[in-house]
Write a structure and sequence with these properties.
The chain is of the alpha+beta class. It has ten helices and seven strands. It folds into two domains: 4-157, JHP933, nucleotidyltransferase-like core domain (Nuclear Transport Factor 2, Chain: A); 161-249, no CATH class.
């Protein structure tokens, strides 16, 4: 079990707030429970947390969990994981699982609720999307973490497809963290294709156009620092990030 003092040392080493490390620790404990559930065979891990937990530990910290899901299993999953969460071996004080929001035929959201070290309530959003299937072959990978928890294996989306979904998110729900994640992957040499982007945009009856991306990126400048500063030891300059991303995507 990771102690509170160890969490404080990790926060100091990683140069982020203790609350971010406590949430990352809770996310890791939740992934351990999910990996042992029967429902895990229906889940494919994706999104910003998957970038950090499955591929690049040096990526930004994240605050939620995103999965593709084979059908609507939200109620079954919530019932299955609630007791193992509250009895987890990492000492995270999970208090319950609630259905937070319905997205009709698109997906469901569960809220994994826990108390932080000060007894304040917090939560992890667990989003289940079941409107589309992954394009590329997913594979089972081991979770990378700062807490020495081993043998957590989760079926995970291909990193190139995660990148394409991040681009889609940037276009339709623009947030600085989406742009940062794309830039981070670009810097790691990850590449996507226009065909893959177009496939992802079929969900909105659309296709990739660089002008739309330019518009989405431009509108993020004001909130850049505010959205990212808690999740990174240092936030890169918006101008540098946006230029790098637009240069790569303009050549697709």
């Amino acid at each position: 079990m990771t102690t509170h003092d160890e969490l404080k040392r990790i926060a100091g080493r990683e140069k982020v707030g203790l609350g971010i490390i406590e949430k990352d620790h809770a996310i890791t404990a939740a992934l351990e429970v999910l990996s042992g559930s029967k429902s895990s065979e229906h889940l494919t891990f994706k999104g910003g947390t998957a970038i950090k937990k499955m591929f690049y530990p040096e990526a930004r910290f994240s605050e939620d969990l995103d999965f593709d899901c084979q059908g609507d299993i939200a109620r079954e999953l919530a019932k299955e994981i609630e007791k193992p969460l509250t009895n987890n071996d990492e000492g995270v004080q999970f208090t319950g699982v609630k259905h937070e929001r319905s997205q009709a035929d698109q997906g469901r959201r569960l809220s994994l609720q826990y108390n932080d070290s000060n007894g304040h309530p917090s939560s992890i959003k667990l989003d289940l999307a079941f409107l589309e299937k992954a394009v590329m072959t997913a594979r089972k990978m081991e979770v990378k973490n700062l807490y020495g928890i081993s043998h957590i294996n989760i079926m995970t989306m291909d990193i190139r497809e995660i990148m394409a979904e991040k681009a889609r998110a940037l276009l339709y729900t623009p947030r600085p963290r989406h742009l940062y994640d794309i830039w981070f992957l670009v810097m790691k040499g990850v590449k996507t294709t226009k065909n893959l982007l177009d496939h992802k945009l079929k969900l909105y009856h659309d296709e990739f156009q660089i002008r739309a991306l330019e518009t989405a990126v431009k509108n993020l400048a004001r909130d850049w620092e505010r959205d990212l500063r808690a999740l990174l030891p240092a936030v890169p300059k918006f101008e540098e990030v946006s230029s790098d991303v637009l240069d790569v995507f303009s050549r697709l």
